[in-house]
Each structure stands twice: as structure tokens, then as C-alpha cells.
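Let's practice the habit of predicting before peeking. Look at the sequence and jot down your guess about where helices and strands might fall. Then scroll down.
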Amino acid sequence: MASKNYCWALIDALREEMERDPATLLIGEDVGAAGGAFGTSRGLLDAFGPLRVRDTPISEEIIVGLGVGAAMTGQRPIVEIMFMDFLGLCLDQIFNQAAKTHYIYNGAFKMPLVIRTSAAVEMGIGPHHSQLLECWVGHVPGLKVVMPSTPRDAKGLMKSAIRDDNPVVFIEHLAMHKVKEDIEDGEVLIPIGKADVKREGRDVTIVATGLMVARALAAADTLAKDGIEIEVIDPRTISPLDVDTIIASVKKTNRALVVTSSLKPFGFGSEVAAEIMDRAFFHLDAPVQRLTPPFTPAPFGKAFDNYLNPNADSIADAVRGMLK
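Done guessing? Here is the structure:
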């Protein structure tokens, strides 16, 4: 058992998988000599050389296109798009090539491609670098989408994503890179498509993603002092979504709150709410609620971010409102 932060957990996952399978490659801006834009590929160039850890020009479309081609020819590329906001520059390669190649060639090609990207929510760096757009990629058939909220889950989901024969969009929260957790020695694999019940409770189910999971747990600690027991579920995988675990929880608690760092309209919270209404309507004692930042571009400055985004206090207040 060793204490690892989120960033080093990812580095360990990459190193272990590159040692395990020589077909595994890392491709992107500054992943080599610089050790990654956010330090998440430190030491890998020295360990595996420039043919397997490859710096690229500043062209997101070329980066993902290179990964698609490499995957079609038997490699297992991991490509890095520095900020999730930049996915708009390579959507054709993601939506129309990576996601559909296996289907349009009737299974003749596999697509073992991992697309790493970072959501810089609450980093104070403004509207072009702060968006969480999991609903974009979650809407596309053929893509798997994961978003870990702990260092252990980051390591285990990265290893599973690399081994998957389908394209996986791997979303990292930059604000969690320094979060630490004890991770056991040896193999750590987290299955894609399986949610985790982070805390059991009886009164309200909170479905929280990414950065919001720790805040939901903090709110649950506060509410427990008042005798309110919250069940906290971390989907971990956005697509395919583990709806069964969410529904089982709601049937027990009879109330549900979805808390995300992404926006409310047309978002992940809307999908979860719709699934609950479809499959657990007659178990509900209150409408499903969503707690998100307001529908506005992210401003510059951490003070604004902290004001706009859900926190432990606002989550606890929302729960109390549902129980009135």
C-alpha cells in the first residue's frame, strides 16, 4: 500500500501498461521531453523512448487522427488533448472515425484508442479552458466515456481503458491532481461501466461525478450530524452508464439529487433524472433534483469559480430542501 496523488496514479497506470504491452503508445503535445503539460507523463520518455512516447505538433485533429490510424493497424495508442475545450478541434476524428470504424467495417478493425483530456473546472483559467463536456462524447454511440474521482479509480480505469478494444474518452479533473489516496500494490483494475457506492444511506441518493464526489461525501458527513443519511454514488463511467446501481439506490431512498460540474441544460444530470423517472417513478417521494453551475461561460479567477460551482454547503442545503 502506498499513498499516491491523482497525477502519479495516472503515471503509474501508463508505465505499467506500457511495460505490459509493447503496442501501447503515448502521443500528444509535450508528452515527451516536457513530461506532460500537467506532469502526467513524467519519466515515460526516458523509460520507453521517442518511438513510443511521441511529441506532436499543435494540431488536435492530427493527434487524434494519428491515434485512429495507429489503432487500426494493431497499436494501442493513448492520445492526449490538453484541455477538454479543445475537443471541438478534433470532433470529426472522434465522432466520425474513432467511434464508427468498427461498425462501418463490420468488425474488421478494432479501435483500442484512449483519448485523454483534462477538465480544468475551478482552476480559474477562464471560458476557453474550463468546460466539462462529458455530455458531448457521452451522446455518441461507439465511444466509452470514463471520469474517475479518486486516484485509485484513475489508475484502475486508465488501465482498463488501455486494454479495451473500443475507443475510450478518459476525462481527468485537473483540480484533483494533488488529491492523495492509499493504493494497494500490484494490479489495480476498475471495470468500465460499473458505478461505485461511495457511501451508503437511507434518506436521499446523491449521484455525483468527478470533482463533486468528494463534496457530496463532505455534505453527507454534515447531514449525518442531523440524522440525515445520504447515499453517494459515483458513476465513474459516463457511458455506458450503470443505471441499475442508481435505480437500486433510489428505490431504497426514494429521493435523488444529481450533482455535477457541468451545466444543467441537455446535460448528464438530465440523463440520470430521465432514467430515474423511467425506471423508479413510483418509488419517488419528491422530484429528482439537479445541482450544477449556472448556465454561463466560466469567468477568470478562482474566487468566481468557487462562488458559481456546487460545494458541500449548497449540496447539504439542496438535500434539506428535498426532505421538507
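How did you do? The chain has two domains: 2-183, 196-323.
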